[in-house]
Amino acid sequence: MANGEGILLGEMHFADREDTREKLLKQVWTEELNDVFADVAGYYDRANHVASLGMWNWFRNSFLATIELQSGQRALDVCAGTNAVGLAMLRKQPDLQVYAMDRSTAMQEVGRQRAAREGFHIESVIGDVHKLPFPDNHFDVVTLQWASRHLRIMDVAREVHRVLKPGGHFYHCDMLRPGNRTIERLYYAYLRVSLSVTAVLFRSGMAARNCKKYFIDTLSLFYSVEEFSQLLKHTGFDNVQARSLLLGMIGFHRARKPGP
């Protein structure tokens, strides 16, 4: 895999950038990520808590605070992982219909067990989120968090736009590429250390250990907070709002599908 840190993509068209990301990252996307997620599923949330120096709950709660819910709405959590966001939405609004979609059976099994312990039901779908198996104009709310770097995100954004009802909202959260090059370099240096430490602490298998460089490459080839806002507008959303945390290392986005 090419070292993404040396590649500057800021002036390229979104489609070209997505093609470049796929070309450089596709091998891991198609051949390795399932094994990585199967490896980390059992300790995923605990590892993130350690890697974030205890800020993981703050990140999640800050993101959840951006999500507006109403009684009886239908919500889809894309790349749902262990169902942390779906469960948090149900605690906030228990009569939601929540669907979860993820490529990892292992992650969703952890999520199913968590939901069962709390007495909630989340309808789980295993599959490719680039082609959502839902009808047009179906959901009031769609969420996506901590996974965009592993996707052809413009294709997924178009699918999210398709399945949202007119006037529905898309809520996004992920690690993003800081706009400042000095902050970016410091960010990657910290991630190299934290990934190594968590791999030792949680006795990660070879699949996860071998992807440390990949996780840095995904960020260096990804979008800044402002660029991601422009991507959402480019795919048809309006009223795009963004919030940056930690000097652009993490970004929240809220976007609306035009309609009543």
UniProtKB/TrEMBL annotation:
Keywords: Menaquinone biosynthesis, Methyltransferase, S-adenosyl-L-methionine, Transferase. One of its GO terms (biological process) is menaquinone biosynthetic process. Gene3D superfamilies: Vaccinia Virus protein VP39 (3.40.50.150). InterPro entries: SAM-dependent_MTases_sf, UbiE/COQ5_MeTrFase. GO terms for molecular function: methyltransferase activity. PANTHER family: 2-METHOXY-6-POLYPRENYL-1,4-BENZOQUINOL METHYLASE, MITOCHONDRIAL (PTHR43591:SF24), METHYLTRANSFERASE (PTHR43591). This is Methyltransferase domain-containing protein. It comes from Sulfuricaulis limicola.
